[in-house]
Write a structure and sequence with these properties.
20 strands, alpha+beta, eight-stranded antiparallel β-sheet, disordered C terminus, five-stranded parallel β-sheet, Rossmann fold, 496 residues, Dna Ligase, domain 1
Length: 496
């Protein structure tokens, strides 16, 4: 099942990232693009490119039938969906395989089961995986929801079964607001996903968002590649991620890793996927959902493990067994990722589309930039406004933070507002530096006034962060036996 030509059904940085690994593997690539992306780097990089249509996604990147037809016309062997768009669309995945092509991702069954939070809960119930207290069926009657909430105890969380990205999600503090919030959740879920099913669970008041990267092949092998901390969020969407997490002990990491691989086994998973958990103040963890695709934040896992996840996806799609076992995998160093969005943090993170008048990414030791733009390009209004993923690696968390601070300082972007200043705010904040933060970081600490603090305040914050870094003790970031004083950036064994 050798793949000789791969079509990447996506755009921007993730399309480029997939194509680069494909080229290293000797695989020809085909790009697809909308009229808005005609001059994008991913189009120039590919061996061939096909225009799908006008800029709106439903007239271009979501045209599954057209993408498959073009793949057949061009002699493509496989389709990689990236993330977003059609990546978790079971109908598209089945259509790809029905056309005789390889879908670089899990099977249709896994996508369908894990695409519904209720179905996912049902699928894993025989594996003794911790769940947030709540119900495992859809609710439509506000009166019934009130009775359930009274048993669980407020606050509760109303969640769309088919949801994601914070859509169809409402926190309810007391019974008086339940009916209104439930109606809003159902309406938003129907609009966003075409499915208004919602369920109710206990709201964890000070949660950490921890996800586990898993890999599975078609021969019964399943491993996890440790965790990613994803608690710095705005509107329930991640902005800063890191690996490993400062709160996980080796014992907790092992237990969560086993739960994650059990989730993968529960749905017959194949390829790269991510199992998401909430961790409370007592370090009890609860299964949230599984993302049946590559994650935006996958680079931090690649840097601490030396594993090219896209290469592994392609090898699994070619029906090859995993090249390593769980015992072969070790955490080496620490990595951070900042999503550089064209958003204005001082205006509730609203999109700031426009022209990249200046665009000069940072360079240097321990810095990785996954981007899909060049200086002079416009940020389209039709898609997610992410410009790039800025990733730094260090021998430990303190080094990774300092390197990220330098990288943000060196990143030159004019013409649009970005999340770079927010990233600097996070890195200088005592709560983040000390590791004592949760998913409410933005709500608790961030405001435009603080982000625009005067120069003297910024110096004080930076000094405090430096003091904390200097005083910080290693927190589960050195799990391998090597204690070399030399940089591990070039020493790490990589599996490509």
């Amino acid at each position: 099942m050798k793949i000789n030509k791969l079509l990447v059904a996506n755009r921007g940085e993730i399309a480029l990232r997939v194509m680069r690994t494909a080229r290293e593997m000797g695989i020809a690539t085909v790009a697809v693009y909308s009229e808005a992306d005609r001059l994008s780097p991913h189009v120039k990089y590919a061996d061939e490119a096909v225009c799908l249509g006008p800029p709106p996604s439903n007239q271009s990147y979501l045209l599954g039938d057209k993408i498959i037809a073009e793949s057949l016309r061009l002699g493509v062997d496989a389709i990689h969906p990236g993330y977003g768009f059609l990546s978790e669309n079971a109908v598209f995945a089945k259509a790809v395989t029905d056309a005789g092509l390889i879908f670089v991702g899990p099977g249709t069954h896994a996508i369908e089961v894990m695409g519904s939070k209720l179905a996912a809960k049902d699928a894993v119930k025989d594996y003794d995986i911790p769940m947030v207290p709540g119900i495992d069926r859809a609710v439509t009657d506000p009166k019934e929801a009130t009775e359930i909430a009274a048993k669980i105890g407020f606050p509760i969380l109303i969640k769309a079964s088919a949801g994601g990205g914070g859509k169809g999600m409402r926190i309810v503090e007391n019974p008086d607001e339940l009916e209104e919030q439930m109606q809003r959740a159902v309406s938003e879920a129907t609009s966003a996903f075409g499915d208004g099913s919602v369920f109710i669970e206990k709201y964890i008041t000070s949660p950490r968002h921890i996800e586990i990267q898993v890999l599975a092949d078609n021969h019964g092998n399943v491993v996890h590649l440790f965790e990613r901390e994803c608690s710095i969020q705005r509107r329930h969407q991640k902005v800063v991620e890191e690996a490993p997490s400062v709160i996980l002990t080796p014992e907790l990491r092992a237990r969560m890793g086993k739960s994650a691989t059990d989730v993968a086994r529960a749905c017959g998973y194949s390829g790269a996927g991510t199992v998401e958990f909430l961790v409370d103040a007592n370090l009890d963890y609860y299964f949230l959902e599984m993302n049946t695709r590559l994650q935006v934040e996958h680079p931090v896992t690649e840097l601490i493990t030396g594993i090219d996840l896209v290469r592994q996806q392609i090898l699994v799609a070619e029906n090859k067994p995993l090249e390593f076992t769980q015992d072969d995998l070790k955490i080496d160093g620490h990595a951070l990722e900042l999503r550089v969005y064209a958003e204005d943090p001082n205006n509730n993170f609203l999109p700031s589309v426009g022209n990249l008048q200046t665009y000069r990414p940072p360079r240097g030791h321990g810095i990785r930039v996954d981007d899909g733009f060049e200086e002079g390009m416009d940020i389209p209004i039709f898609y997610d406004p992410m410009i790039a993923k800025l990733v730094t690696y260090g021998e430990n968390r303190e080094e990774a933070i300092r390197r990220m601070q330098r990288a943000i300082h060196d990143y030159e972007i004019t013409g649009v507002a970005t999340t770079l200043p927010f990233g600097q705010f996070v890195l200088q904040h005592e709560a983040f530096v000390s590791g004592k933060f949760d998913t409410h970081f933005v709500k608790k600490y961030f405001s435009p006034e603080k982000n625009n603090g005067n120069e003297e305040e910024a110096k004080v914050a930076a000094l405090l962060a430096t003091q904390i870094l200097n005083q910080a003790k290693p927190m589960n970031t050195k799990t391998n036996s090597s204690e070399s004083k030399k940089s591990k950036w070039k020493q790490r064994k990589t599996i490509f």
